[in-house]
Write a structure and sequence with these properties.
The protein is an alpha/beta fold and 300 residues long. The protein is built from 12 helices and 9 strands. Strands 1, 2, 3, 4, 5, 6, 7, 8 and 9 form a 9-stranded mixed beta sheet that branches. α8 crosses α11. The protein starts with 5 loop residues before the first strand and ends in a 24-residue tail after the last helix. The relative contact order is 0.10.
């Protein structure tokens, strides 16, 4: 069976890794990004660079959108040079952003009305897992959409969870994941800050906690950035301002209390307004007063 041609719109940390994974798996990959030079650089090793989502959509039967939020996804589909106008009936749009589940449900209806399949498919795992094909996808879609894009999904990710037969369920599970991720980063920063305030050596604290019951994946991953004094954004502070905001909006609609998520959201907003919006999300530790953070490690 011939593999479908695939388009990737958005070549950030995750999108670039996904595009490379698909290329390595023998797919004909078409790419575009607002930074056209990123698309050209990708295509130098195989694949085709285009300037607009519409050009990608005209060349691909499955279009994967890997942008930040719903507004950017709207632009990918319906903005100038948007993909929706060029997608053929029976083609498939795979939406990988973290969004309001109700927005995703509405988008499915809009695309289905135009004869386009839709997969609600938020992703998790980070750039390294995207590049190795080991990321996680939280998906929900109609059976015909899965049938059209099954080979692409299985090549993109190590785990593809099918959570329902219509859009929305994938996005709901993703925002619950983001609730945990955001709270874990915030509390990891709080714990490290307390250790620094009490005069504990940061590297010793990190070593002990990562080998003790209090450890979490986020403590181990993000506090390593703090030890290195490196706040280069792999996932920025403002991502969790957005994502925890979505979490709270979803809960508020049903009057469901989320006290820890609300506190973590306030911490990320404080970090954002203090000037750290575009730094790595571990920079939330910078909101704590009276501590001296490890300095950036010198690189050879």
């Amino acid at each position: 069976m011939t593999q479908p041609s695939v388009g990737i719109v958005g070549l950030g940390a995750m999108g670039a890794g996904i595009a490379k994974t698909l290329r390595n798996n023998g797919f004909d990959v078409h790419v575009c990004d607002v930074r056209h030079e990123a698309a050209v650089a990708f295509a130098a090793d195989g694949g085709t660079a285009w300037k607009t989502p519409a050009e990608v959509a005209a060349a691909a039967s499955v279009v994967v959108s890997v942008v930040v939020n719903a507004a950017q996804t709207e632009a990918v589909l319906f903005g100038d040079g948007g993909a929706a106008s060029a997608m053929k009936a029976g083609s498939t749009f795979v939406m990988c952003s973290t969004v309001d589940p109700n927005w995703s449900i509405a988008l499915e209806a809009r695309l289905n009305a135009a004869g386009i399949h839709y997969i609600d498919a938020p992703i998790s795992g980070g750039a390294a897992k995207a590049a190795s094909g080991q990321m996680t996808m939280m998906t929900s879609a109609k059976p015909e959409a899965y049938a059209a894009a099954d080979a692409v999904l299985n090549a993109m990710a190590g785990k593809v969870y099918r959570l329902g037969d219509q859009a929305g369920a994938g996005s709901k599970v993703k925002i619950i994941n983001q609730l945990l991720a955001g709270v874990h980063i915030a509390v990891a920063a709080e714990a490290m800050a307390l250790g620094l305030r009490e005069g504990v050596a940061a590297d010793a604290l990190y070593e002990v906690i990562t080998n003790s019951a209090g450890n979490s994946w986020m403590f181990e991953n993000r506090m390593a950035h703090v030890l290195a004094g490196d706040y280069t954004p792999l996932s920025a502070v403002d991502i969790f301002v957005k994502d925890l905001g979505l979490v709270l909006d979803t809960a508020r609609a049903s009057k469901f209390p989320l006290p820890l998520a609300a506190t973590a959201h306030q911490m990320f907003m404080q970090a954002s307004t203090a000037g750290f919006a575009r730094e790595d999300d571990s920079a939330v530790i910078k909101i704590f007063p009276g501590i001296t953070l490890p300095e950036a490690q010198k690189k050879d």
